[in-house]
Structure to design on (355 residues):
C-alpha cells in the first residue's frame, strides 16, 4: 500500500508526534503509522459526498411546526479542491456543515466524509474548523490558544513546540505570538483562527468567513495560504459572503437557497454563461439603426453614446459592427463584458425568490 505525497509512512517506533489512535498499516509483519493523519485517499475518492441530505426542525406547541433547513442536497467534493458554499442568510449552509461534522443528525438522506458515513465523531480528528465569529479568552496569548486547541486535538507537546511557530509564521503573527489575545485586532483574530484550524494537520478544513475583517493585503496572504494547502492535497470547504474572494480562489462552488441546491459548478461556468459586448460610439445611433437592429432579433441595451449587445457567436458581433457602419456610426471601442460571480449569484437567487 502506498501513501500519497502528503502522507509519509513510518514504523511505529519511529513515528514521533503521531497520535496513538491514528490508523495503522501492517506491512511485512510490522505495524506502521500513516504519519500525517490518515490512510491516503484514492485520487478518485470524494472527500465529501452527500445524497439527498435533509434536515427538518420541529418547533411550536407539540412540536407540530416543521422548518425544512436542508432539502435533499446532493453534492460531491473531490480531494484537494477548494470548494465554496454560497447562499443568503438562512439558506442552510451552517446546517449542512453541522450535519457533515456530526454536530446535528440528518432527518433524511446520508453523506460520507473522508470515506466514512455520517454520523461519525472519530472522523473529526482529521478535520480542521474555523467557525464564524470565533472567540478566544483574552488573557491567553496566541501561542497559548494554539497549545490549548492542539492538546484538545491530542497533538503531543513535542509536535506543538515545532508546529506552533511554523503556523504563526504562515499566518503572519510571529511578532505577536506571545501577546495577549485581547490586544489582537479582528484581522489578527481571523489569522489566529486559521492557525487554530490547522493545528492538527487536518486533511479536510472547514472555514466560515475566513477573510472577514481582514485588510486587502491580509486577504491576499490568506488566499496564498489556502492555495498552498490545496497544492499539498488538503481539501478546503469555504463559507463566505465575500463573493469576489470566492471567485479568485475556488475550484468549484455551489449555491443554496431556502435549503435547496440551486446550482453547482466551476467559477467559469458561473461567470461565462452569456457573452456581452459593450460598444462605445462617438454619438447616439440614429433611430433607423434601432429599427434595423430589432429586425435581426439581437438583444441590445442602449445608453448614452454606447450600447451593450448580448451575443452568442463572433459572427453575430461582426453583423452588428457591419450594421453600425452601414448607418455611419463611428465606433470608439469594443469591450467584452464578463459576468461577475456576484451578478450570477444575485440573478439565481432572485429567480428562486420569484418562482
Amino acid at each position: 500500500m502506498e501513501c500519497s505525497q502528503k502522507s509519509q509512512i513510518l514504523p511505529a517506533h519511529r513515528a514521533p508526534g503521531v497520535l496513538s489512535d491514528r490508523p495503522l498499516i501492517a506491512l511485512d509483519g510490522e505495524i506502521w503509522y500513516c504519519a500525517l493523519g490518515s490512510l491516503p485517499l484514492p485520487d478518485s475518492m470524494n472527500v465529501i459526498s452527500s445524497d439527498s441530505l435533509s434536515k427538518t426542525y420541529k418547533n411550536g406547541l407539540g412540536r407540530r411546526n416543521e422548518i425544512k433547513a436542508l432539502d435533499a442536497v446532493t453534492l460531491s467534493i473531490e480531494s484537494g479542491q477548494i470548494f465554496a458554499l454560497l447562499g443568503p442568510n438562512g439558506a442552510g449552509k451552517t446546517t449542512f456543515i453541522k450535519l457533515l461534522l456530526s454536530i446535528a443528525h440528518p432527518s433524511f438522506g446520508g453523506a460520507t466524509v473522508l470515506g466514512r458515513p455520517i454520523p461519525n465523531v472519530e472522523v473529526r480528528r482529521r478535520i480542521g474548523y474555523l467557525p464564524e465569529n470565533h472567540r478566544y479568552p483574552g488573557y491567553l496569548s496566541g501561542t497559548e490558544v494554539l497549545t490549548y486547541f492542539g492538546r484538545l486535538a491530542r497533538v503531543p507537546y513535542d509536535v506543538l513546540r515545532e508546529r506552533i511557530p511554523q503556523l504563526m509564521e504562515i499566518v503572519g503573527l510571529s511578532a505577536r505570538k506571545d501577546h495577549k489575545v485581547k490586544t489582537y485586532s479582528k484581522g489578527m483574530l481571523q489569522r489566529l483562527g486559521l492557525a487554530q484550524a490547522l493545528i492538527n494537520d487536518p486533511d479536510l478544513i472547514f472555514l466560515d468567513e475566513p477573510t472577514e475583517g481582514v485588510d486587502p493585503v491580509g486577504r491576499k496572504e490568506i488566499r496564498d495560504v489556502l492555495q498552498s494547502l490545496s497544492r499539498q492535497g488538503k481539501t478546503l470547504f469555504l463559507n463566505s459572503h465575500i463573493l469576489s474572494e470566492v471567485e479568485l480562489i475556488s475550484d468549484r462552488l455551489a449555491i443554496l437557497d431556502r435549503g435547496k441546491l440551486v446550482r453547482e459548478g466551476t467559477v467559469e461556468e458561473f461567470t461565462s454563461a452569456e457573452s456581452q459586448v459593450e460598444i462605445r460610439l462617438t454619438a447616439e445611433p440614429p433611430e433607423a439603426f434601432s429599427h434595423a437592429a430589432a429586425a435581426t432579433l439581437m438583444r441590445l441595451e442602449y445608453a448614452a453614446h454606447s450600447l451593450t449587445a448580448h451575443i452568442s457567436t463572433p459572427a453575430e458581433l461582426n453583423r452588428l459592427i457591419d450594421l453600425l457602419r452601414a448607418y455611419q456610426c463611428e465606433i470608439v471601442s469594443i469591450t467584452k463584458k464578463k459576468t461577475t460571480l456576484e451578478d450570477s449569484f444575485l440573478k439565481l437567487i432572485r429567480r428562486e425568490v420569484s418562482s
About this structure: The first strand starts at residue 9 and ends at 11. The mean pLDDT is 82. The radius of gyration is 26 Å. The chain is about 30% helix and 30% strand.
